[in-house]
Amino acid sequence: MTELRLSAFAGHRSAVHALGPVTVFAGPSGSGKSTALRAYEALARLGAGDTLDEVFPDAADCVPERARPDAQGRRGFRIGCTVDGPEGPVHLDVAVQAEPRLRIVGERLTGRDGRTLLATALRDPGRSAVQAEWHTAGATPVTRAPFPDDLLGTALLPLRVAGKTRGQLEVLAAAEQVVVGLRSAFACDPRPERMRAPVPPGEGRLRRGCGNLAEVLHRTHTDCPRRHHRLAAVAGAGCAGPVTGLGVQELPEGALRAVLERGARPATPLGRLGDGELRYLALALTLLTGPGVLEMDRIAEVPDAMQSLTVLADGLDRGLDGRQLGELLRLAADIAADGHVRVAATLGERSAGEARRTPGVTVVDLGA
After folding, report:
1. What is the per-residue pLDDT for 298?
2. pLDDT at residue 299 in the model
């Protein structure tokens, strides 16, 4: 995703934000940083096939405060994005009615040449469907069909379009580019209070709250020794005292406990670390892994070596000191330069200076 559009979403109006490989939204409390990241995650979840009520359980809070209902009592919000790829920049815009009933009332998918590839509109408010039409070319220039009003139409196109004409192939390629781009997102929100206790062994996929950090470290130590070694080096740069490695101990009851190895000194269980150190380690691990190690919707049709990932981190600087934040930003920029990982995050106003000093980081100042 290279652009996020908040046409009318909560406190945002006519906002267009370009997204680089590492983008941080900065500004004072109440400036809309978390709201912007929430819109990004909402688009990602819609692209993955989640229903509207799952994505927006409190949809009324997304409606701009000054939005007035129309004659039928309807109010809503609008968000959109641009996803770049082999088909060039493809634009997706979605209009959502929040009141009196939650539904998608309009959607538009636009190709790089400005051609409308998909458009939906609410024709009959009494039906739980919108009228969709997509570019076909051939004998019939446009195909029309009803789509459900609680799902993203773009995500449904691969199931509805035959791909027999040049126009259909164009629509399919653009829709698949957008869906793959949206689905390649992992929202990381480390919760230190859930990361201290030993955990049972499992499949080794890191959860959003990172409560199973020890389990995932056990997997990376076995399956990804190079990444694990690099994570240990990053740990040494952001944790107090000497760090010579990251280990995992198997306890008698079968549970796993992660430790910081200290050379000749006794190892330190991660449960003894401070909240900032635990968040730092969890975020670094997320940046150094990929879709196969994160608990996210894997894209089976894209080979693992070609899959990209966007890490969403609201409050990236929460609990971190300046040294830890600087190390994480430099790590993010370094990994993003390889082209397989992107980062979209939020920072408090006081942390924006560190982000501006880090090469490869784009700062979107919402407090200006």
Report:
1. 60
2. 60
